């Protein structure tokens, strides 16, 4: 999946003591703070992902009906097909259903960031912070229009949305504010319901409104505009640089901290329609496809099996998991020879991602499974990138292992 479990521990848990604090308390404090921050963020993401998946599934089905079952041209929209008059009977009915599913499925995406903010705030401040977090998250994508004097007349103008960045900030502010209020305000037990269901939610919602309207939206909108302008100025070079970093970080530790950091950044960009998530989606599954493929083509490529029976079975499973958008199938290969396998599949992921992006593949929906492929613009380019990255990994691993067998450094049962 686009966000998935940590699989490989790429470092030690111990924290180095800094010279300024011989006891190591500063380092441990920083470690605890980062773990707490990560915990709250991942809680919010874990509640957001089901919304994205539901929206993606319904959205994908809405595209499969017209473009696969009815054979419509990719250049034609569903509404355009309905208005063309070419479809009648069951075909017209299917198009109407597809239109409803398209509208409903992609509407669900609008709830992703508010859900993230709500449950991140809930993770910090409890259920009392849930509503204010949701409100702040919604305003992050749908900013409140502010009365502005335009040509000597007042008009409501919607500012640039603060997006994912604004949702993160308001979720943490609201969460810790509610946590502080719950600890500070002491009322008799008979007033507990009033405190938790009315007073604190009201105060926190007002705080969310004030901060979002006057501070977070202006600053976050300015930053988003700055990022968009910088990417536009960089042109293709900026796109390829972003794709390279995203693919390498995604593939590196198969769901570990580097992968999570990359996913966190990419998810923010794609939900705000700043940058597509194509490179990440390719990099999630290329290692599984490539390493799985190496167990299939080894005998054909070098005339012998370079994996034992157990790995041959694992390879088939890895390919299946790749179609499901899961990178866990790569883990046994990475654990066996990490010094060689990890760099190879990182390079393969970068090759595939860059090729797919350069050929015009564009994916906004954060999911790598096969059922999300109908949502990809220029699917042939996507598949070419996927095949190229996977083949690089497969061929490289087969020849490397064959070399080890010839040198007597590897035994295959």
Would you mind describing this structure in some detail?
- 70% of the residues lie in helices and 2% in strands.
- The protein is built from 13 helices and two strands; from the N terminus they run αααααββαααααααα.
- The chain has a two-stranded antiparallel ribbon.
- Helix 7 (192-252) crosses helix 8 (257-271) and helix 9 (278-302) packs antiparallel against helix 10 (309-323).
- The longest helix is centred in the middle third of the chain and has 61 residues, at 192-252.
- The two termini are 33 Å apart.
- Residues 1-26 have low confidence and may be disordered.
Order of helices and strands: HHHHHEEHHHHHHHH
Tertiary shape: globular
Q: Whole-number average pLDDT?
A: 83
How many helices does DSSP assign?
13
The largest beta-sheet arranges its strands as 1-2
Percentage of β-strand residues = under 5%
Task: Summarize this entry quickly.
With about 425 residues, this protein is an all-alpha fold. The chain has helices at about 25-70, 80-85, 90-110, 110-125, 130-140, 165-185, 190-250, 255-270, 280-300, 310-325, 330-335, 340-360, 380-405; strands spanning about 145-150, 155. The longest helix has about 60 residues, at about 190-250.
């Amino acid at each position: 999946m686009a966000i998935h479990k940590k699989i490989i521990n790429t470092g030690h848990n111990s924290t180095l003591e800094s010279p300024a604090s011989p006891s190591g308390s500063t380092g441990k404090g920083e470690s605890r703070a980062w773990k707490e921050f990560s915990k709250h963020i991942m809680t919010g993401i874990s509640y957001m992902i089901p919304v994205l998946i539901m929206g993606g599934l319904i959205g994908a089905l809405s595209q499969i009906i017209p473009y696969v079952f009815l054979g419509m041209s990719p250049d034609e929209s569903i509404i355009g097909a309905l208005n063309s008059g070419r479809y009648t009977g069951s075909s017209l009915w299917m198009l109407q259903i597809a239109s409803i599913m398209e509208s409903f499925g992609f509407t669900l995406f609008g709830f992703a960031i508010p859900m993230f903010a709500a449950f991140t705030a809930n993770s910090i401040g409890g259920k009392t912070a849930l509503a204010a977090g949701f409100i702040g998250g919604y305003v992050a994508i749908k900013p409140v229009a502010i009365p502005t004097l335009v040509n000597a007349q007042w008009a409501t103008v919607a500012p640039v949305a603060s997006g994912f960045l604004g949702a993160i900030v308001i979720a943490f502010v609201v969460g810790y504010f509610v946590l502080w209020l719950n600890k500070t305000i002491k009322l008799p037990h008979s007033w507990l319901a009033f405190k938790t269901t009315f007073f604190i939610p009201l105060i926190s919602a007002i705080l969310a409104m004030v901060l979002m309207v006057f501070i977070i939206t202006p600053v976050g909108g300015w930053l988003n505009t700055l990022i968009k302008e910088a990417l536009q100025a960089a042109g293709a070079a900026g796109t390829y640089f972003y794709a390279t970093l995203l693919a390498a970080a995604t593939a590196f530790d198969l769901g570990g901290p580097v992968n999570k950091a990359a996913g966190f950044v990419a998810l923010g960009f794609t939900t705000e329609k700043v940058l597509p998530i194509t490179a990440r989606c390719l990099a999630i599954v290329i290692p599984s496809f490539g390493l799985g493929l190496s167990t299939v083509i080894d005998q054909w490529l070098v005339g012998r099996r370079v994996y034992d029976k157990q790995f041959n079975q694992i390879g088939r499973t890895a390919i299946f998991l790749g179609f499901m958008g899961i990178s866990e199938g790569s883990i046994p290969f990475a654990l066996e020879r990490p010094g060689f396998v990890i760099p190879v599949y990182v390079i393969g992921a970068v090759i595939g991602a860059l090729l797919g992006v350069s050929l015009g593949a564009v994916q906004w929906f954060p999911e790598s499974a096969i059922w999300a492929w109908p949502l990809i613009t220029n699917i042939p380019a996507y598949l070419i990138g996927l095949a190229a990255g996977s083949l690089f990994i497969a061929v490289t691993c087969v020849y490397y292992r064959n070399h080890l067998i010839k040198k007597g450094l590897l035994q295959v049962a």
